[in-house]
Amino acid sequence: MHISFRHELGRDPWFITGIGLGLVLLLLAGLGPVFSPYDPHDISFRPLSPPSADHWLGVNDGGMDIFSELLFGMRNTAGFGILAGFTALFLGVAVGLAAAWFGGFTDQIAMRLADVVLAVPSVMILIMAASLFRPSPVMLAVILSIISWPTTAKAIRSQALVVKNRLHIHAARQAGASGIYILARHLLPELFPLYLIGFAAKARMAMFMEASLAFLGLLDPARKSLGIIISFALKYYYMDIWWNWLLPPVILLSLLTMTVTFLVISLEKVFDPRLKEAL
Amino acid sequence: MKRSILILANVLFAVLFVCISATPAVSQMREIRIADSRGDWGYPNPFLHYPRGPGYVRMSWVFDTLIWKDQNGYIPALARSWSFDAENLAFTFILNPEARWHDGRPLTSEDVSFTIQYFKKYPYLWVTVDDIERAVAEGAYTVRIYLSRPYSAFLPDVGGTMPILPKHIWESVENPHTYNDPRAFIGSGPFIFRDFNKTKGTYLYEAFTDYYQGRPKVDRLIYVRSGKPMLSLQTGEADLANIMPGMADELRKKGMTVIRDERGWNKKLMINHRKPPFNERSFRQALAYAVNRQEIIDKSHLGFGTPASYGLLSIDHEMYNPKTPFYPHDAEKAGEIIESLGYTRGNGGYFEKDGCPLTFELLSSNITVAGEIVSDRDGEVIKKQLEQIGINVSLVNMEQATTDSRIKNWEFDIAISGHGGISGDPRILNEMISSQYGAGSVNSARYDIDPELNRLMEAQMVEMDQQKRKNTVYGIQELYAIDLPAISLYYPDAVAAYNPVKGICWFYTKGGISKGIPIPQNKMSLIK
Question: Where are the domains of chain A?
Fold first, then answer.
């Protein structure tokens, strides 16, 4: 990354807010089991107890500590997003770079495949897979990445085509550098900003998707997730539980997606000159 | 003066005209809306409705039976009177000559005898006509039904559940399960079926003004899908809804009338007793000891429920056997039984046998009383309880139709499901235990390997003396509770609320609608 980009990012309020929020949330998610006062599956507390010193956010209908549930739920939701984001990024980069580098038939096949996958409604595929085959969350994240790589691949390909024709790449070729060397030493690092944008966009979508599937009851109901916490809290909409039970997971889910959105906006603004002008 | 009188007369005429023209418009607006969280229960005819209580109830508005139930018990419906001739094993029904089909034709004894023949040829899963030898129309309004052998559940089953079909429509129908022509919904009930939107889960019925028991109290009956019964009642979107027990006080304060049912619906642990280790009776008993039912009620339903009898019949039933075997929660005993079956504790404290860990799948669905879909934690709590004694459980949550289908096809290990009918006629025992009686039911254990249990079930069906039948029913409950082909868990509190402003008094039927459906949508509420 160029020093000017780093400098520009460091001054960008979107980036500062996003990275700050992201670090706090990642810390909470990563160290959730350490912070968590109780086992989130422990059902030994008095159901629907209000918030107290022992239970900061109270106890849910099943006798479980809501704060502990939240920490584990956020960990699972964020973990799902990060896994799906990375896998989609890996696939997108691999296909995009291969298409740009080899060109011709490989490019045609890869891009037509991307067009086909883009035409597939990912929500429907995921709902069908979740309801018919009941795969594990890890497998679902992989399935999601398999149907969401094309946009990243297309972006990587178009940028790689530009870089591929630059003078230093031609010079490297003339100097006898192998294709793998050029890909690894030149193309991969130079496209770095696109990885961040691609990852962030996919991760945001995946987190929301995970929460939605859990909300619909399509994931293991015993697995904690922000979606399932919201789903159960809504069941008791007629009671005064919205502020301590319903609101926290909604806020956390919003913060998670907002964090990634801020980062995407910031990165796009810095690395895409046209967007920079628009903003 | 003359002019003033003329003006006054004109004004009076105008007021009178407005009143007269407005009256029918207001009358036409009289409608009742019922909220339901699932919505789609199939088309309301005997061959197309979903085989659960709410499906039957939607059909019951359109199709009448020979007799029916109100708050106090059986009352005349299409049959004005009925009698039993023990010597000839025959029931005689005198039909109401006022009864008409929705297309205006009179309903006669020919229709009744035709219905029985038709159901013999194309069985209707809710009714058994196997024990009927023949039905003879004796005149236009008298029908005599001869039995091939005594049938103790004849009245609730054939009399109170069997919808009568119009012969002039169905005699030419050879594939009733795909027949959904508008004529397939011509019945003799108080409402004419007008529309069903499968996607929205809404039903629209209109009053049958020539109904033989009198014009219904409302002109339109509408079912709307709503997962928020309290809001629906408060906003007027619905006039009647099943509610969670915790909502009762708040709704009372808002002026709604809250009604409670007896314990006529049970949540049940279905067991695939055809495959190991569930084919071992002692293993099933270990499961019964392992599951803490009171904890499920407390943690999943805020304490609103009662542990069920292991003998299936409701504890409110007059034939409930108080000496039915009982399995108090005892995790240690459950573990001992499993060990006696050759399992040993392996790594992580889970049981294993021949190197294979004791692992199975718990299929969970969210059905509750009245067919409502309410997410609960039953699966989560049971999984935890079983894991505490050393059984590794993977919990899978599925929507009800898929769960039903997997249970019916034996594609499961254990599953949480539930059904009503347990406060109705004890024939429910046969339907929920034996494949001979309940093969079509998604809730039947289809357990046929205990000859003594089979004998008792046969015996209760042919015993016309109610006291002797009671002894037999006692025996069935006892054996069922020992064999445990399925484990009854608890009776959730069944509560509904309605808006009294509409002038309709809804009620839960004692013993349930028809064969025991614990839903407060008895058509008599809208008739008399």
Answer: 3-33+64-278
Q: Whole-model pTM?
A: 0.81
Put simply, whether B398 touches A (Cβ < 8 Å) is yes
Q: Cβ–Cβ of A62/B377 closer than 8 Å? A: yes
Domains of chain B, CATH where assigned: 63-183 (3.90.76.10), 266-492 (3.10.105.10)
Nearest CA in chain A to B394: A220
Q: What angle do the packed helices B451-462 and B466-483 form, to 10 degrees?
A: 160
Tokens representing residue A123 in the block = 């929500």
Report the CATH fold assignment for A3-33+64-278: MetI-like fold (1.10.3720)
DSSP state letters, chain A: --HHHHHHHHH-HHHHHHHHHHHHHHHHHHTHHHH-SS-TT---SPTTPPP-SSSTT-B-TTS-BHHHHHHHHHHHHHHHHHHHHHHHHHHHHHHHHHHHHH-HHHHHHHHHHHHHHHHS-HHHHHHHHHHHH---HHHHHHHHHHTT-HHHHHHHHHHHHHHHTSHHHHHHHHTT--HHHHIIIIIHHHTHHHHHHHHHHHHHHHHHHHHHHHHTT-S-TTS--HHHHHHHHHHTTTSTTIIIIIHHHHHHHHHHHHHHHHHHHHHHHHH-HHHHHH-
Find the mean pLDDT for residues A124-148: 89
Phi/psi-derived region of residue B187, left when phi > 0, alpha when psi is between -120 and 50, beta in every other case: beta
Q: Which residues of B touch A130 (CB under 8 A)?
A: none
Interchain CB contact of A240 with B (< 8 Å): no
Nearest neighbour of A43 by CB, restricted to B230, B375, B381: B381
- Chain B residues in contact with A218 by the CB 8 A cut-off are 397
**Residue A186: pLDDT band by 50, 70, 90 thresholds?**
confident
CB contact under 8 Å between B295 and A231, yes or no, is no
Q: What is the mean pLDDT of each run of 10 residues along chain B (528 residues)?
A: 53 46 50 92 94 93 96 93 94 97 97 97 91 94 96 94 97 94 96 94 96 96 92 94 92 95 93 96 97 95 95 95 96 96 89 92 83 83 95 88 89 93 92 84 91 96 93 97 97 95 93 90 92
Tell me how far apart the alpha carbons of residues B147 and B154 are, in angstroms, rounded to a whole number.
9
Distance from CA of A218 to the nearest CA of B (A): 7
Say if A80 is an interface residue toward chain B (CB within 8 Å): no
pLDDT band of A222, cuts 50, 70, 90: confident
* Residues of B whose CB is below 8 A from A131: 398-399, 402
Probe site for chain A from B230, B363, B377 (most A CB atoms < 10 A): B377
Please report residues of A whose CB lies closer than 8 A to that of B379: 221-222
Q: For residue B323, which amino acid is it? A: K
> Rounded distance, CA B102 to CA B120, Å?
25
In order of B39, B208, B318, B325, B486, the CA distances from B481 in angstroms are 35, 46, 18, 6, 9
Q: Is B375 on the interface with A (CB under 8 A)?
A: yes
The verdict on a CB contact (< 8 Å) between A61 and B364 is no
Q: What is the pLDDT of residue B332?
A: 95
**DSSP state for residue B240 in the 8-state scheme:** E
B374 to chain A: nearest residue by CA? A235
Test A131 with B399 for CB contact under 8 angstroms. Answer: yes
DSSP type of residue B308: P
Please check whether residue B429 is in contact with residue B460, taking contact to mean a CB–CB distance below 8 angstroms.
yes
Percent residues over pLDDT 70 in chain A: 95
Q: What is the pLDDT of residues A38-80, one digit of tens each?
A: 999 998 899 899 999 999 999 999 899 999 999 999 999 999 9
Task: Say if residue B245 is preceded by a cis peptide, omega within 30 of 0.
Answer: no
**Facing residue for A232 by CB, picked from B250, B375, B396:** B375
- For B311, the token pair is 């003998």
